[in-house]
Write a structure and sequence with these properties.
Chain lengths: 112, 114
């Protein structure tokens, strides 16, 4: 079945450094890749998404890259801040009915 | 727009009881998804519904679990004869259409089975 693998499971960085989270997916029909941020005890919230017709997308300190040939995509956070500390989930879905498959999550700690 | 509303926020059930979790999607959204999140784990897809139809229930356990999204009223996730392993956070999400659009999540229902 469809699968999304996410690495690392835990990431600790110093404030101001960059953080990179990587995901791979198995369903070659996937064409929509959202990233969600979940703070402790709260709901997941979309922070950025990318569609398969685009290789890269940037929104202020956050960027996502997509390599459809290799079936992997990455989240880049630059100039990290303590408030970036949260669990980040990558996800992949195809146009057939929006069965979104999530990665297992990356717990990001930003040390002040 | 009140967003996706889930209730209750917290639910405690004894083993063997039934749990009913409710989800009201955002206004104008006709697609609802349920996910389960175990402590310290990711979101596991359970079921995808449109009004009066189950589109994909491949992530739902075959026994004890059922879901519906009636023409009127909220979507309901029903767990019969709960066991301790059902303890988790259950998140509902909705979107205006099925293909490749952002899903908005509710606050979740934290089910504890004692």
């Amino acid at each position: 079945g469809e699968n999304v693998e996410q690495h690392p499971s835990t990431l600790s960085v110093q404030e101001g450094d960059s953080a990179v989270i990587k995901c791979t997916y198995s369903d070659s029909a996937s064409n929509y890749f959202p990233w969600y941020k979940q703070e402790l005890g709260k709901r997941p919230q979309l922070i950025i998404d990318i569609r398969s017709n685009v290789g890269e997308k940037k929104d202020q300190r956050i960027a996502v890259t997509l390599n459809k040939t290799a079936k992997h995509f990455s989240l880049h956070i630059t100039e990290t801040q303590p408030e970036d500390s949260a669990v980040y989930f990558c996800a992949a879905s195809n146009g057939g009915g929006f069965k979104t498959i999530f990665g297992a999550g990356t717990r990001l700690f930003v040390k002040a | 727009n009140a967003g996706v509303m889930q209730n209750p926020r917290h639910l405690v059930r004894r083993r063997g009881q039934e749990a009913r979790l409710r989800c009201s999607p955002m206004k104008g959204h006709s697609h609802v998804y349920w996910y389960r999140q175990l402590p310290e784990e990711g979101l596991k897809f359970m079921v995808y519904l449109q009004k009066e139809n189950i589109i994909d229930e491949s992530g739902m356990p075959k026994e004890r679990f059922s879901a519906e999204f009636p023409k009127e009223g909220p979507s309901i996730l029903r767990i019969q004869q709960v066991v301790r392993g059902d303890s988790a956070a259950y998140f509902c999400a909705s979107s205006p259409r099925g293909e490749n659009t952002e899903a908005f999540f509710g606050q979740g229902t934290r089910l504890t089975v004692v």
